[in-house]
Inverse folding.
């Protein structure tokens, strides 16, 4: 069960500013990373560290300037070919769901794209709503009628409905209140035990990341300066930058 | 809530909060009804020659007076309303379809598509409407079809720009990214996610394009480039009436006032829809 | 440095647009019913003259050469020859340009003088639904020039009140007479401008008022007058500049109907008469000049953006 | 020496689309002179509303229904525009959450500083003020536009503006929320030092419990538009007497043991349609009893702080036991 889900080798992403090829800026520099099934890798860094860019590379939304991203041991291919195998949960819960569609319809979409039959879709959508703790009637509600935490649960349900092998959580709890954050963090951990997906948990909040991840990679100015089991971050990590991040938790 | 009750409530709130727009809505509905039901209304026969004195002033029998052939001008103006509305609606519908399609493509695909569509819009935008009218009249000769073409050419660039910017903002939202990651094709994303979320802005632009369309139609027809006799639109009636402007001003004024009311009502309804979609909350400075 | 990096692409875009416009006009004129060539040559022309004109316009060569030839002659200022007067069309346009320019200046001045202040006042007044700004904006934008012009002509034909319709006199020769003729059409054109600028300014001001730095200014206890003068106006300027330049571009090249109504001898009237006389060289030149004016005016507004908003051109999204 | 700020029985309502919601449900609060008071609360708790109401900087759709707000004896609720303007200019200093949107994007920093200081300050005076806010290259900062500054520098400019006219009270709305963790601590230290140098009081609105414990003398916890617990920071954070405060501390990730599970607060923050007749926290409270659902607890002193809970003693006692258990 511990096959590698996502593997990044020497990934470099260069942004070229300006119309006539202005100065180049390396958002990600020579990153090597791999995530196994059932494991959550926390990716911590401040704004501008390149963590979101790396997340987009892992999702196949952004082709790296250099380096190879392989998925399940094979070249990534296209999102179309990989449909149903990976998904994403994003930060702002007010835009996580299409306001015009009922929650059930939003969660059903990945199954429609996979070509699953209507009967099977209805069954799996109902099941996934229960497993995220939103049974009885939430399926037919519109996102506008839900609280931030509930909307985030629906987007997690959508991310899980095709039982993908890999999920990226990009600042998925940062916009939530502290009390609701804990609910969603626990939900992510419980669902990982149940479905065994590999996860990349991107956040600027070391406390939340440390709680939910098995391993943590600290990113600073496009490079990974430390990659260690999360227990290390309850004590004193090696790299000075990691220690500085820890100081804000004291 | 049934759609009927929903619109009823919205109308009620509109009447209380925004009397101006409500007035606009009432005028628009009245004009459309009169335009559609004209022939069955007791307004007189638009074609009956010498129904009254030639160039007679407004009177009970002929509320809008009579034209140079003694025809009552009221039923002719009513016929004109229908022609002007119909012509503008046809033109604006073409604009909406083409404008939304290319605007959405440019806003969603970005890159080269965006540049091509933007340059295309810039090229069309460079021609003021009436100048396009001259060119089209030279090409296809005056008439309803060229009027429709001119209105579309003049309003498509505006439409593309608005739809493009709205699409840009919607495409950046989480639910679009999530659908892309799930492997949805660009077409599915546009139809299921983007279109329903920009339809509000499209409708607002539609009303504004309608009012621009009616201005263009009346100007073209006045210059003899638009609707030609025997067909009649508010613009062509303005043209006919202007020949007798100083001696029988009621011809031009009646058609002109009705045309202005039509355009104003469409503008006001557009404002109301725009405020309903994203209310602009100002702020007191104290 | 910032400006060059920002303007270079803008200039490139303007050139591409100009090329596109000229291709469009060139092709349009070629598909005129009855064939551009026949119309250009006219039915009564002797064979030799026909050959000479064909050679002059390169009508025998493939379309691409014709276009290159046509474009090259344009760049040298040769906008073709009027079929009626056989004189270069460009001279007539240059002779009439000041008239249209004067009309445009009057309309723009009135539109700015009323549109901006009313727009700011109405915007600052905020949500007042029945705001006077909205009423003026709605009415002004809804009365077509044709209707307003006709109404003014009728009123002043009955009680002349110093104004005169027709009989244009250049400002240099007789300023008062000139004003008597030009004020009415100028005002007619300005009404739509007032409404357009008023609505845009009002929306821009209301939008700026919701921005964070206005809250900071209020929290600092700045006087409302100062907040408007120093913070609101400049931040609301870009949308207003956009609409003003677009409107001015329209005035310079699209105000045909007012020139026809008030028989003002500007380029609009000249182009319109060109169409009536099927003198397509005039129509072609008129359309091209209108588009070129519009494109260059938009270039001006791009430069103004960079001057007003320091973020423009540095890639920071506004 | 009366308190600098006294808020009594304040009710503020928000007119949403069609529905009215209560921002504050007869809230009580006092800020002593020279004190740093932190107001902690989640979305909908009313913390921003009460903080901003001190300077009556409320959004247009907010209405003060009833209650009084006095700053240094001046009533804010019925102050006319001019009096309010002078109060803000001379006695209040504001620091906002997002420094990038709080500065005029089209105006250089120097001119904006002049607006804050008022009158005709010399360049050196402005530079000195910026240096006090620990901006080491004031000349460059003065010449730049807001978008040319980093988040941290922009926030320091705003802090300099806030203390420009040595206000009696600084109101900081989530001052470090949009800053990176590395500079958050330094910016808070600067703010605290400048407050002390001016002898001003400060109100900090925040949802970050750790930040509060290091920088505030007292802390007020808000829930459902009311102050449910207020007292010395150490007392309240180490031995909370209100079930919500305790649950909030337990739910926050950061001080749990590796592998230890966080205790989330089930349900979601309340939306108040009208005055509360029962304890607003009752639906989510772990120790709720019938009495909590019938009558609304009033503020009363318990274990050296003020609490709105019928069973505060029980909560205070319970936390002190688990506290010992945890520290062994």
């Amino acid at each position: 069960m511990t096959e590698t889900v996502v593997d990044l080798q020497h990934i470099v992403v260069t942004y070229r500013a300006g119309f006539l090829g202005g100065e180049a800026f390396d958002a990600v520099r020579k990153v090597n990373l791999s995530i196994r099934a059932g494991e959550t890798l926390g990716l911590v860094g401040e704004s501008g560290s390149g963590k979101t860019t790396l997340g987009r590379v892992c999702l196949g939304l952004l082709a790296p300037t250099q380096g190879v991203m392989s998925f399940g041991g094979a070249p990534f291919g296209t999102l179309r070919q990989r449909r149903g195998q990976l998904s994403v949960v994003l930060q702002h819960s007010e835009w996580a769901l299409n306001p015009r569609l009922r929650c059930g319809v939003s969660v059903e979409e990945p199954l429609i794209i996979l070509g699953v039959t209507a009967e099977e879709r209805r069954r799996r959508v109902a099941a996934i709503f229960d497993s995220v703790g939103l049974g009885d009637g939430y399926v037919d509600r519109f996102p506008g009628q839900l609280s931030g935490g509930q909307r985030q649960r629906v987007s997690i349900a959508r991310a899980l409905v095709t039982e993908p092998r890999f999920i990226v959580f990009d600042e998925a709890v940062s916009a939530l209140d502290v009390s609701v954050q804990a609910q969603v963090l626990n939900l992510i951990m419980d669902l990982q035990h149940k479905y065994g997906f590999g996860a990349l948990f991107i956040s600027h909040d070391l406390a939340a990341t440390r709680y939910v991840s098995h391993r943590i990679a600290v990113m600073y100015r496009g490079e990974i300066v430390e990659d260690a089991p999360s227990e290390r971050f309850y004590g004193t990590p090696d790299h000075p930058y990691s220690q500085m991040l820890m100081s804000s938790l004291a | 809530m049934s759609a009927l009750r929903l619109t009823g409530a919205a109308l009620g709130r509109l009447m209380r909060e925004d009397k101006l727009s409500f007035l606009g809505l009432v005028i628009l509905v009245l004009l459309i009804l009169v335009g559609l039901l004209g022939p069955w209304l007791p307004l007189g026969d638009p074609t009956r020659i010498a129904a009254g004195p030639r160039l007679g002033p407004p009177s009970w029998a002929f509320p809008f007076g009579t034209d140079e052939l003694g025809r009552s001008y009221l039923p002719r103006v009513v016929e004109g309303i229908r022609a002007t509305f119909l012509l503008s609606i046809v033109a604006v519908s073409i604009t909406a379809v083409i404008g939304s399609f290319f605007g959405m493509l440019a806003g969603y695909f970005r890159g080269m598509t965006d540049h091509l569509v933007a340059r295309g819009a810039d090229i069309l935008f460079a021609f003021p409407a009436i100048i396009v009218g001259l060119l089209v009249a030279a090409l296809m000769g005056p008439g309803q079809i060229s009027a429709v073409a001119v209105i579309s050419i003049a309003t498509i660039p505006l439409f593309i720009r608005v739809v493009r910017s709205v699409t840009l903002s919607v495409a950046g939202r989480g639910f679009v990214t999530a659908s892309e990651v799930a492997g949805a094709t660009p077409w599915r994303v546009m139809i299921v996610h983007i279109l329903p979320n920009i339809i509000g802005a499209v409708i607002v632009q539609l009303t504004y394009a309608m009012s621009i369309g009616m201005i263009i139609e009346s100007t073209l027809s006045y210059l003899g480039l638009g609707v030609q006799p025997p067909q009649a639109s508010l613009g062509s009636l303005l043209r006919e009436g202007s020949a007798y402007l100083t001696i029988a001003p009621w011809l031009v004024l009646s058609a002109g006032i009705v045309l202005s009311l039509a355009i104003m009502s469409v503008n006001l309804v557009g404002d109301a829809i725009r405020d309903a979609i994203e209310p602009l909350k100002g702020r007191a400075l104290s | 440095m910032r400006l060059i990096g920002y303007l270079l692409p803008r200039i490139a875009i303007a050139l591409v647009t100009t090329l596109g416009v000229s291709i469009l006009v060139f092709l349009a004129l070629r598909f005129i019913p009855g064939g551009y060539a026949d119309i250009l040559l006219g039915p009564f022309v002797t064979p030799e003259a026909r050959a000479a004109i064909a050679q002059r316009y390169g009508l025998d060569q493939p379309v691409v050469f014709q276009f290159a030839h046509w474009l090259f002659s344009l760049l040298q200022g040769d906008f073709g020859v009027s079929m009626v007067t056989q004189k270069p069309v460009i001279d007539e346009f240059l002779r009439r340009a000041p008239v249209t320019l004067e009309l445009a200046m009057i309309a723009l001045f009135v539109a700015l003088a009323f549109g901006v202040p009313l727009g700011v006042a109405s915007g600052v007044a905020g949500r007042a639904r029945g705001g006077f700004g909205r009423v003026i904006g709605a009415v002004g934008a809804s009365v077509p020039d044709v209707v307003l012009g006709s109404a003014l002509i009728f009123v002043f034909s009955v009680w002349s009140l110093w104004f005169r319709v027709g009989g244009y006199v250049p400002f240099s020769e007789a300023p008062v007479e000139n004003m008597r003729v030009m004020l009415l059409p100028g005002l007619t054109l300005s009404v739509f401008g007032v409404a357009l600028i008023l609505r845009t300014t009002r929306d821009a001001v209301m939008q700026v008022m919701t921005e964070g730095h206005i809250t900071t200014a209020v929290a600092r206890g700045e006087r409302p007058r100062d907040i408007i003068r120093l913070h609101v106006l400049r931040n609301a300027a870009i949308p207003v500049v956009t609409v003003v330049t677009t409107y001015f571009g329209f005035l310079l090249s699209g105000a045909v109907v007012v020139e026809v109504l008030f028989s003002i001898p500007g380029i609009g009237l000249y182009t319109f008469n060109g169409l009536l006389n099927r003198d397509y060289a005039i129509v072609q030149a008129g359309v091209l000049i209108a588009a070129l004016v519009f494109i260059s005016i938009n270039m001006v507004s791009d430069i103004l953006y960079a001057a007003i908003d320091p973020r423009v051109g540095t890639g920071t999204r506004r | 020496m009366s308190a600098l700020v006294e808020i009594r029985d304040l009710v503020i309502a928000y007119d949403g689309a069609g529905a009215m919601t209560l921002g504050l449900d007869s809230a009580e609060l006092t800020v002593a002179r020279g004190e740093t008071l932190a107001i902690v609360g989640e979305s909908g708790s009313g913390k921003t509303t009460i903080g901003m109401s001190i300077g009556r900087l409320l959004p247009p759709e907010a209405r003060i229904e009833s209650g009084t707000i006095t700053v240094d004896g001046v009533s804010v609720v019925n102050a006319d525009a001019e009096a309010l303007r002078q109060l803000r200019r001379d006695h209040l200093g504001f620091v906002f959450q997002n420094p990038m949107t709080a500065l005029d994007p089209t105006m250089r920093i120097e001119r904006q500083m002049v607006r804050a200081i008022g009158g005709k300050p010399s360049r050196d005076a402005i530079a000195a003020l910026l240096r006090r806010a620990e901006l080491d290259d004031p000349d460059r900062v003065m010449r730049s536009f807001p978008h040319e500054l980093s988040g941290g520098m922009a926030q320091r400019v705003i802090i300099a503006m806030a203390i420009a006219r040595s206000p009696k009270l600084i109101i900081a709305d989530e001052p470090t929320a949009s800053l990176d963790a590395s500079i958050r601590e330094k910016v808070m230290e600067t703010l605290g030092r400048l407050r002390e140098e001016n002898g001003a009081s400060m109100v900090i609105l925040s949802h970050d419990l750790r930040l509060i414990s290091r920088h505030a003398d007292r802390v007020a916890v808000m829930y459902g538009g009311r102050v449910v617990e207020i007292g010395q920071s150490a007392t309240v954070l180490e031995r909370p007497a209100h079930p919500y405060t305790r649950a909030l501390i337990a739910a926050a990730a950061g001080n749990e043991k590796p592998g230890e599970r966080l205790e989330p607060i089930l349900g979601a923050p309340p939306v108040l349609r009208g005055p509360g007749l029962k304890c607003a926290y009752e639906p989510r409270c772990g120790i709720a009893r019938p009495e909590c659902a019938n009558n609304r607890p009033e503020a009363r002193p318990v274990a050296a702080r003020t609490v709105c809970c019928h069973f505060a003693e029980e909560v205070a006692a319970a936390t002190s036991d688990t506290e010992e258990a945890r520290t062994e």
Notes: Chain B touches chain A through 17 residues (CB under 8 Å). The domain at 2-53+70-277 of chain B is CATH 1.10.3720.10 (MetI-like fold). The radius of gyration of chain B is 22 Å.
